[in-house]
């Protein structure tokens, strides 16, 4: 588990640098098509999902980070440094102080917890947080499916329900469009066209993928 967490830390660190670069570019490329911004975020997702990276002299990632030196420095095992004398347990030594002899009893130093133990604990904290987020998503999805079971058909893969406040797309292989009843008839064609554009663009796949990345890197505030 610790080795997997170490790999996730490395990927999360390099992915954060690329994500920060995309955030900076968004201020520069304000007038560019939104499709370009989505493509840039797709590159961030690709870097986070790939366990390896292509080396290049033009890379934004510093060599120490790309080579894993930063993460390996945090996870490397360190021998505890002992500042007391190495003497047998219970050994008494007489020390002259102001003409009198003071007997000092040495204790065998206890072992200092290694950095490796801390990483193991953090690895279990990470996997627990990821499992909680994934479990939350599954329960929310099943609850939403249950609420939409009483929706009425409006058209092909289009439904209306009183249990939703805004239009949305539900499903991966067979995406369905759900609409609230309060939308006026004159606005329905535009709203349906908007949701159909989401399906054509594959947003019903990108959204769960983005949430999965967030669940695995929940500890990273940048991501």
Shape: flat
Distance between the termini: 22 Å
Overall strand count = 6
- The total of helices stands at 7
Structural class, from helix and strand content? alpha+beta
Could you give the order of the helices and strands?
HHHHEEHEEEEHH
Sequence of strands across the biggest β-sheet: 3-4-6-5
Estimate the strand proportion: 5-15%
Work out the helicity level: 40-55%
Mean pLDDT: 80
- Rg over C-alpha atoms, rounded to the nearest angstrom: 29 Å
Low-confidence stretches: none
Major sheet description:
4 strands, mixed
What is the strand and helix layout of this fold?
Layout: H1 2-28, H2 34-49, H3 63-66, H4 69-75, E1 92-97, E2 100-105, H5 115-147, E3 152-155, E4 158-161, E5 168-170, E6 176-180, H6 188-201, H7 203-216
């Amino acid at each position: 588990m610790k080795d997997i967490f170490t790999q996730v830390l490395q990927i999360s660190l390099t992915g954060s640098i690329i994500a920060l670069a995309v955030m900076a570019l968004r201020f520069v490329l304000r007038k560019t098509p939104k499709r370009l911004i989505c493509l840039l975020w797709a590159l961030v997702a690709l870097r986070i999902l790939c366990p390896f990276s292509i080396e290049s002299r033009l890379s934004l990632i510093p060599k120490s980070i790309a080579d894993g030196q930063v993460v390996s420095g945090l996870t490397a095992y360190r021998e505890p440094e002992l500042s007391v004398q190495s003497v047998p347990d219970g050994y008494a030594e007489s020390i002259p102080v102001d003409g009198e002899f003071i007997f000092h009893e040495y204790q065998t130093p206890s072992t200092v917890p290694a950095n490796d133990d801390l990483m193991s604990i953090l690895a279990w904290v990470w996997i627990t947080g990821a499992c909680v987020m994934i479990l939350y998503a599954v329960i929310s999805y099943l609850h939403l499916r249950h609420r939409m079971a009483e929706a009425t058909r409006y058209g092909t893969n289009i439904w209306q329900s009183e249990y939703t406040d805004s239009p949305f797309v539900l499903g991966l292989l067979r995406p369905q469009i759900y609409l609230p009843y309060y939308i006026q008839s004159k606005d329905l064609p535009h709203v349906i066209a908007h949701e159909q554009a989401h399906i054509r663009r594959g947003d019903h796949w990108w959204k769960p993928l983005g949430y999965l990345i967030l669940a695995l890197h929940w500890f990273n505030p940048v991501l």
